[in-house]
Automatic annotation (TrEMBL):
Pfam family membership, one: PTS_EIIA_2
Database matches in CDD domains: PTS_IIA_fru
Protein name stated in the entry: PTS sugar transporter subunit IIA
UniProt cross-references to Gene3D superfamilies, sorted A to Z: Mannitol-specific EII, Chain A
Domain PTS EIIA type-2 as annotated: residue spans: 5-153
Family annotation (InterPro entries): PTrfase/Anion_transptr, PTS_EIIA_type-2_dom, PTS_SugarTrans_NitroReg
Native source organism of the sequence: Pendulispora brunnea
Keywords on record: Sugar transport, Transport
């Protein structure tokens, strides 16, 4: 399964300039909005925001190099769902390297699919390990352009 199978262009959001995101809390709320739009069956955005926030309380998902992977499990979900928030200016996210996060790739998964969830997190981590690719994502004009970059990096459009 490719990441673009879990994602859609509509769930990739670029926020810069006057529309930038200024806090971790605001970022998690926006990611919850995006994920609620793609969850099947539909999961309320408040439920998703609560799950992401509770996970962040355990330990930040800011893995360094400007990348954070907020994630969580939802019992009612039928399949995984992802969203990407790109904030070129970066936000404080309590990342392990102490740097701001500017690529926030969020995933919610059915509680019964732990192995699949871990594979997805590893796939995201591998994709965003490439510095040049991260820089191209940060320069993406909009969510659709960022989605197409991911599809191209994974080997084609979905």
């Amino acid at each position: 399964m490719r990441l673009t199978d879990l994602l859609s262009a509509e769930r990739v959001c670029v926020r810069r300039g006057n529309e930038t995101v200024s806090s971790k809390k605001e970022a998690l709320a926006l990611l919850a909005d995006l994920l609620a739009d793609g969850s099947q069956p539909a999961i309320p955005r408040d439920t998703i925001e609560s799950i992401l926030t509770e996970r962040e309380k355990l330990q930040s998902t800011g893995i360094g190099d400007g990348v954070a992977i907020p994630h969580g499990a939802v019992a009612e979900l039928d399949r995984q769902c992802a969203a990407l928030l790109i904030v070129p200016d970066g936000i404080d996210f309590d990342a392990i390297d102490g740097e701001k996060a500017n690529l926030l790739f969020s995933v919610i998964t059915p509680k019964r699919a732990t192995g699949e969830h871990l594979k997805t997190l590893a796939r995201i981590s591998r994709l965003l390990r490439n510095r040049g690719f991260r820089e191209r994502l940060l320069a993406a004009e909009d969510g659709r352009a960022a989605f197409e970059l991911i599809a191209s990096e994974e080997g084609g459009t979905s």
